[in-house]
């Protein structure tokens, strides 16, 4: 049980801090959240800065153009960039954290050479075409069809919850290529150019009022067969390999941010008198315990990932269950502190309270996560 | 950074588990329970407070000495001084194992007295200590630390933790409050992990409607939430044992208390009617967990400390 960082890790942290202190003041002003092209340009610009400084693809393997950093270095990177107020990964999320690692792990040499460098250099944006209106938690039930026509696949169907679809260059797309096969067996992974004819993107407005996602309608879109990663009908395995790329670091920045917010909420309570309410004060104290523990659980999961060579256990499900709940509790408590101001959408915490509602749904609902924990960790029989 | 247990720490955990499973398995637990229960039932003499009490002692002094010989109490004393030269992380691992098997006795007070009170380190002496408004195992202790004047026995909720109430508001802090909190959290963690295992085991094997009850999602989700609380508490308790930071310890005790109490309750629920019986061990975990929540100022003090931490220091 060693929570101290090695001299190498501390040196990595110090260098990163110095670089961040120098570079962050030179960033352009943050774009409006509604201006997608500006958001794309801002996020790609930041990625380029990371690339030039040698921080791009930190956790990617070296032979994929990454830095081959350890999970602990990645943890330090995420912790420090959050503390320094650096931009989020934003439009680069799918490219850096999902599609890129998939190509790196399962793609051919040509595919890696074509798709990986532009992600690292901040030149191309990827989006994800996985979920469908009738395939959410049960992703393998997806029905978007693709059939072979000469050197192309022809794709028809629809996708949903696709972030950054409006500004993406590529979409990592799961399609059904063998309708008769068992559902996990007939799926293929394709890289679809987003400028191909037949693609319609319709922004999806969330309950928070913003358009963070889109629906993507595909009407006989032609995708070159050369854009298939892995074998035909092997797309489910290809996708799962990448999901196991996550090394316990998925929410590092968010936990750091939540701890800062909690402290701000407590200070606000002191200022507006709500601090005198012992029940509320104790509730904030309890949240402090939760988020301290979540930080330690992050360190635990990262240490496990480091020890097992990068493949995480199902610890990610345990963490996500606890974290998504705690995040909602945090912004509920913030609303309690704000009192009537909790009704003001101009208050950042009010918007955060709304967006926190997605945390127990996105990336595997809490119910699905509990099934995973019960069946894969506790060994309970498969339930229905 | 490598938060995982070292090989030595794993070996220590294995060793303590083997010792306790061998010396304090289920039969020993139920025997201790019967001794404690018999205090009231089986022809004991009447005491001043009107309750019946036998002459038999509940604590197994032989086991206590074995614990001493195994280094349970002297674990953190320097090697030259008859100890094992271990630190808080190792102590936490040992107390977690004690919590798993519901090992009775003033373990924490005796462990903390090792080196200061004669016989504590070797398990020759049973040492207890006043903690706020309560003192555990007063009648069986050889040495009592703190002022216990006017102590009044309670009919103990946990049959294996006799307690006396101390007069006054009970606000007096234990000198070792931080360590009491931490080691108590370790016991809670062990109990929480155990009730999660027992619940999952029962859910896998108990059949209703022609299938294991663990195939029902409602049951699965109870069990999954138990594990989430255990693993979150584990990270907090282990980290607090490394840093010994007061806020980390307060967080650890809160999460471990919750994991133990809610874990035992959910375990009871998963067991259905059998969970409500004396014969089941689940109620023993719940009653002990409830008892431990009163140590070192309870949740209120820890929550207030953690609230203060939010506005005082840097995050």
Automatic annotation (TrEMBL), chain A:
Span of domain Acyl-CoA oxidase/dehydrogenase middle: 127-220
GO cellular component, one term: plasma membrane
Family statement: Belongs to the acyl-CoA dehydrogenase family.
GO molecular function: flavin adenine dinucleotide binding; oxidoreductase activity, acting on the CH-CH group of donors
Biological source species: Streptomyces populi
Domain Acyl-CoA dehydrogenase/oxidase N-terminal: 6-123
Keywords: FAD, Flavoprotein, Oxidoreductase
Cofactor: FAD
Protein name: Acyl-CoA dehydrogenase
Acyl-CoA dehydrogenase/oxidase C-terminal domain segment(s): 233-378
Automatic annotation (TrEMBL), chain B:
GO molecular function, one term: acyl-CoA dehydrogenase activity
Domain Acyl-CoA dehydrogenase/oxidase C-terminal: 184-289
InterPro entries: AcylCo_DH-like_C, AcylCo_DH/oxidase_C, AcylCoA_DH/ox_N, AcylCoA_DH/ox_N_sf, AcylCoA_DH/oxidase_NM_dom_sf
Entry keywords, A to Z: FAD, Flavoprotein, Oxidoreductase
Keyword Flavoprotein recorded: yes
Domain Acyl-CoA dehydrogenase/oxidase N-terminal positions: 59-117
Domain of life: Bacteria
Essential cofactor(s): FAD
Similarity comment: family membership: Belongs to the acyl-CoA dehydrogenase family.
Name listed for the protein in its UniProt record: Acyl-CoA dehydrogenase
Species: Streptomyces populi
């Amino acid at each position: 049980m060693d929570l101290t960082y090695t001299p190498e890790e501390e040196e990595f942290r110090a260098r990163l801090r110095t670089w961040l202190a120098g570079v962050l003041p030179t960033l352009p002003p943050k774009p409006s959240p509604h201006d997608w092209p500006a958001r794309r340009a801002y996020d790609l610009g930041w990625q380029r800065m990371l690339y030039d400084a040698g921080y791009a693809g930190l956790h990617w393997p070296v032979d994929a153009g990454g830095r081959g950093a350890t999970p602990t270095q990645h943890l330090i990177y995420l912790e420090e960039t959050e503390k320094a107020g650096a931009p989020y990964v934003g439009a680069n999320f799918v490219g850096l954290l999902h599609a890129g690692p998939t190509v790196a792990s399962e793609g051919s040499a040509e595919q890696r050479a074509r798709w990986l460098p532009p992600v690292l250099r901040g030149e191309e944006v990827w989006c994800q075409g996985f979920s469908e209106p009738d395939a959410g938690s049960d992703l393998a039930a997806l029905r978007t069809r693709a059939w072979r026509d000469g050197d192309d696949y022809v794709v028809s169907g629809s996708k949903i919850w696709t972030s950054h679809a409006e500004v993406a260059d590529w979409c990592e797309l799961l399609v059904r290529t063998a309708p008769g096969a068992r559902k996990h067996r007939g799926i293929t992974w394709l890289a679809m150019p987003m400028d191909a004819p037949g693609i319609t993107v319709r922004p999806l407005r969330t309950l928070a009022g913003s358009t963070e996602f889109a629906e993507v309608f595909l009407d006989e879109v032609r995708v070159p067969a050369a854009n298939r990663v892995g074998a035909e009908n092997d797309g489910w395995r290809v996708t799962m390999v990448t999901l196991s790329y996550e090394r316990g670091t998925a929410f590092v920045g968010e936990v750091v941010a939540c701890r800062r917010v909690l402290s701000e909420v407590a200070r606000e309570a002191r200022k507006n008198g709500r601090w005198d309410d012992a029940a509320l004060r104790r509730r904030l104290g309890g949240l402090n315990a939760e988020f301290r523990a979540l930080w330690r659980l992050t360190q635990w999961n990262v240490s496990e990932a480091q020890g097992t060579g990068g493949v995480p256990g199902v610890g990610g499900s345990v963490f996500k269950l606890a974290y998504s709940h705690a995040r909602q509790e945090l912004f509920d408590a913030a609303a309690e502190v704000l009192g009537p101001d909790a009704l003001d959408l101009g208050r950042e915490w009010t918007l955060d309270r709304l967006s926190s509602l997605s945390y127990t749904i996105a990336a595997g609902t809490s119910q699905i996560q509990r099934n995973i924990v019960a069946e894969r960790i506790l060994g309970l029989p498969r339930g229905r | 950074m490598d938060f995982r247990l070292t090989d030595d720490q794993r070996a220590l955990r294995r060793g303590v588990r083997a010792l306790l499973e061998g010396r304090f398995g289920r039969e020993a637990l139920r025997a201790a329970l019967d001794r404690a229960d018999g205090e009231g039932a089986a022809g004991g003499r009447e005491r001043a407070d009107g309750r019946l009490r036998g002459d038999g002692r509940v604590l197994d002094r032989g086991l206590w000495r074995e614990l001493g010989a195994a280094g349970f109490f002297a674990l953190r004393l320097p090697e030259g001084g008859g100890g094992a030269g271990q630190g808080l992380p190792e102590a936490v691992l040992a107390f977690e194992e004690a919590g798993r098997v519901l090992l009775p006795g003033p373990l924490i007070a005796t462990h903390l007295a090792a080196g200061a009170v004669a016989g504590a380190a070797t398990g020759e002496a049973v040492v207890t200590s006043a903690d706020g408004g309560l003192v555990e195992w007063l009648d069986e202790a050889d040495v009592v630390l703190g002022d216990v004047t006017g102590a009044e026995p309670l009919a103990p909720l946990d049959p294996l933790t006799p307690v006396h109430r101390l007069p006054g508001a009970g606000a007096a802090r234990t000198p070792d409050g931080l360590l009491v909190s931490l080691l108590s959290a370790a016991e809670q963690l062990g109990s929480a992990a155990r009730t999660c295992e027992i619940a999952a085991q029962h859910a896998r094997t108990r059949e209703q409607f022609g299938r294991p009850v663990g195939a029902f999602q409602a049951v699965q989700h109870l069990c999954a939430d138990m594990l989430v609380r255990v693993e979150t508490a584990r990270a907090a308790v282990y980290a607090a044992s490394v840093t010994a930071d007061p806020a980390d310890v307060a967080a650890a005790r809160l999460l471990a208390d919750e994991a133990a109490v809610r874990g035992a309750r959910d375990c009871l629920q998963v067991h259905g009617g059998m969970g409500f019986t004396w014969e089941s061990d689940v109620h023993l975990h719940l009653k002990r967990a409830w008892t431990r929540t009163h140590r070192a100022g309870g949740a209120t003090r820890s929550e207030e400390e953690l609230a203060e931490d939010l506005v005082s220091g840097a995050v």
